[in-house]
Amino acid sequence: MVMAVSVKLVLGSIAFGIFWVLAVFPAVPILPIGRTAGSLLGAMLMVLFRVITPDQAYDAIDLPILGLLFGTMVVSIYLERADMFKYLGQMLSWKSRGAKDLLCRICLVSAISSSLFTNDTTCVVLTEFVLKIARQHNLPPHPFLLALASSANIGSSATPIGNPQNLVIALQSKISFGEFLLGIFPAMLVGVFVNALIILCMYWRLLSDQRDVEDAAQEVVAEEDVNSHQFSPATMSHISLNSLEWSSKTEIVNIDSPAANVNAIVGHVETLRNRIRSENELHGTSSEGSKFSVDSNGTKDQTSELHTLRRDENQNLHSNRTVSMDGLGDSFFMQSSEEKENPTTKWKRILWKSCVYLVTIGMLISLLMGLNMSWTAITAALTLVVLDFKDARPSLEKVSYSLLIFFCGMFITIDGFNKTGIPSTIWDLMEPYAKIDHASGVAVLAIVILLLSNVASNVPTVLLLGARVAASAAEISGREEKKAWLILAWVSTVAGNLSLLGSAANLIVCEQARRAQHIGYTLSFWRHLIFGFPSTFIVTAIGLTLIRP
After folding, report:
1. 219 falls in which pLDDT band (50, 70, 90)?
2. Measured between alpha carbons, how far is 236 from 127 in angstroms, rounded to an integer?
3. Is the CB of residue 265 less than 8 Å from the CB of residue 317?
4. Fewer CB within 10 A of the terminal residue: the chain, N end or C end?
């Protein structure tokens, strides 16, 4: 029997070790299958090694957490379609008063956005905005990228829907949305302020040495710079379509002003007509009838085209875009009925966006009222699907199902590892020194959570330590139990700022910035660590004194 227990311990440790390696290093050369497949592999090995039974594996999957994750992702997708994140991006550059003002705005907007729409979503959507604004103001990008990622992590700690580990904590602890918010919000607010202050102190001279700020201060990021997104840390590529596919066969007309547009397009058509005429003459294939058709009716065609273009120019030529010759015919022969539909379409769009915002506000109010978080999020998501009144497949395809599958595998793997007894043994050794009714105990617990979150990632850390930390605190009082859960939420979230690998939000900012076309920037591991190390410890320590159950 002892041998059997020893075998289960070894095999369970092997399965967890494989999961950990692939979760932390998804592209490890010996098995580059990624995080999602790694979590499923760990779960499968736990069952094959008989560490847990198949029924226990199914029971380990926490459906309320998956439902809440799914609902919040769908709501965020519809908010993005309703231009919420475009407006947040434009707030960053509106009447900016310089680099330091811009950095403070980024910290504030990022923190607020991540507390409502998750930190990963905020970083996916705002990274290119921040990078473009920094380039426009001729400023070094890395202080602003650090501000975006670190503030998103800190801000996400304030609510249960701010990040995945908070979802787990809120549902396992049965702490209501309002209690969670009131308990951590003061720490979050002061943490964002202190974090911004640290960035300003570290990069004060760099931010003071700016050129041509006045010339670019009024520039606003264009609407077409907003990229659609998926909520998956593993899929962060945003490459512009058509740029390669059409480059070899498309002639481009740059649109700058309505008057120039018409002349340029008509001139382009005339050039094509001349080419056709020349080819016909060269090959001797033109007939008298075709010559007459081209020569006699050329003036008529050009006049008709010019008249149609001038009538439709206000509808079709509003921004600096390029028009391919394949689509020129459509722009010449737009029906006048489409002009009449524009106001109706515009008001329908405004009404739909208003409904999206109202549903989101209703979801937040319902959460504050203490309604079931999972079903509240799912109800809000399906309400938006119905109000959209069209096939929901394009929107639902943006949901990161790989992230949901990753969570399923992780739940099973962590449950199997818990059954080996290793986490309980380690906690039994630490528990006497981690009592949260003493300052020294809080410090020890915070250091353990911080280090483990960077070694094993924050969600597995919460799953491994949560129940044990709460049970230890419950022996003191119910109030201390709630405080233990809030400390776990605060420290495991802020711990993501320690290194570039500490949080998916950090990796998203790094990858999005690197792949941005024409304005790409690489945020290095060491540059992040130089800032992240002092910021994480200072912000964590200050926040621990402000958490109130």
Report:
1. very low
2. 11
3. no
4. N
- 148 contacts 126 by C-beta, under 8 angstroms: yes
- Pick from 35, 48, 51, 42: which is nearest to 420 by CA? 51
List C-alpha distances in Å: 158 to 9, 111, 313, 332: 37, 9, 48, 54
pLDDT for the residue 86 = 82
C-alpha dihedral (541, 542, 545, 549), degrees to nearest 10:
-100
Residue 192: CB atoms within 10 A of its CB come to 26
- d(C-alpha 501, C-alpha 505), whole Å: 9
Helices of type H across 389-430: 393-396, 401-419, 422-430
pLDDT, tens digit (0-9, with 9 covering 90-100), for 363-409: 999 998 989 999 999 999 999 999 999 999 999 999 989 889 989 99
Please give the Cα distance from 295 to 385 (Å, whole number): 55
Under a CB-based contact definition with an 8 Å cutoff, are residues 230 and 80 in contact? no
Query: Are the CB atoms for 218 and 150 separated by under 8 Å?
Result: no
> What's the farthest any 2 CA atoms get from each other in the chain?
102
* Cα 193 from chain centroid (whole Å): 22
Question: Among candidates 74, 164, 167, 173, which has minimal Cα distance to 406?
Answer: 164
Cα 176 to the chain's mean position, in Å?
25
Amino acid at position 356, single letter: V
What would the mean pLDDT of 154-174 be, rounded to a whole number?
93
* Residue 259 confidence (pLDDT) above 90: no
Rg for the chain, CA atoms, rounded: 28
CA atoms of 398 and 164, how far apart (whole Å)? 18
What integer is the mean pLDDT of 354-360? 95
User: What residues have CB less than 8 Å from 183, skipping those under 6 apart?
Assistant: 175, 482, 483, 486, 547, 548, 549
**Residue where the block lists tokens 């990078």:** 131
